[in-house]
Amino acid sequence: MSFPSTRPTGWRAPAPLTLLDWQRRQEAFTRSNLTENMLELSFRNRNWNVAPLVAGQLSSKLLMITESDRLQQARTYSIGANATALAVAATAGSAPREAISSHRPPSPAGLMVFADPIGSDIETYRTTSGETVVIHTPIVAASWSLWDGDQDTHHGIPVTWLRQAHHGDVLPYPPRFCGIWMTFYAPRTGDTIGVDPGQPVAVGPDGTVITAAEAHQADTAFRQNNREHWGPLSWHNELVLPEGELFGTSQPGTPQHWAATVYTVWQVMEQTGKAQLTETARHALPPAARKKLASKANTQRTRRVGDGAVRVVDLAATARPAARDAERDNAASDGRRTVQWSCRWPVPPYRRNTCQNPYLHHKLGDDALEHHTHREEIMPMSIKGPADKPLRIRGGTTFTFDAPSA
In which domain of life is the source organism classified (predicted)? Predict the structure, then answer.
């Protein structure tokens, strides 16, 4: 059997208030036996990055409990297309250069859903018939929580957490380790765009190909039969960012690269004053709807999930790029160019180390940064050069002429 060539897919992001129901359903699905079975299969296939070692064996139950708790406590964020594009373009230029800090996330626990994928996982499989199939899995959401010394025990039982190193070795996290724990999610097949029914979207454990039509049919049937345990997102991968370490370089299509993009979104959200780039709107359910959900949770003795609000984040109107300036998600960002006063030119997003107190730095000579700090900021795409000069872009020069005034 021949398959159409695979290709990256887009996805259909949910309306902001829909995320509250998605968060509740994802938390319930994460606590189900289905998730536990999925994690056990991942452990057997060594398809994991973070795992607990409890009483001499890997515990999928503990891993699913930690993710369920993270989703229950999470604040929910909907990231618009322009803000997503800025973070993707800035990360393509370079990963964050500052030391990883647990103070960067906008909340201790969160669930962030993006208007566009922040990257794709590209995996190559060999089928039972001997064919090679390449699967593109878009990454569209991420959850996080802070990792501290409390992870070393679970209900009084010592826990050793393991990670897979780049060279394949399994290494333990040191005691009292601190960092940021991230989980990355892919969409369900029904929420992707531009997928041919016969396109492969997965390969089963037995080496058989699962097409988009088959996956969509199975997902629809499961959703109808398990309305209370249907997760709208697919748990894909996870990692832990160590407190105080640097990102370094990372390859696109890896959890490290997706984590750098999420971290960049946090940086952009935190910029204020003249450097402010984003606007945040808080969307909440009406009081009657919140009261109904609380009553349902009490009646069914289920857990209350989230705080009933979604933070919708996107670039402010003054920071949004014009369509004619340049592609917003330029994957080949080459940083700031040399000034050419004979023309104008587009500058991709770049990172700038900004002094928080120039008076202390320059006037009082605090070069050792003992009494003030520097902070990394993201500068958006812009057009540089004199307004009366032609715009020089890749592939040619655009000349602009103004009609003389009467």
Answer: Bacteria
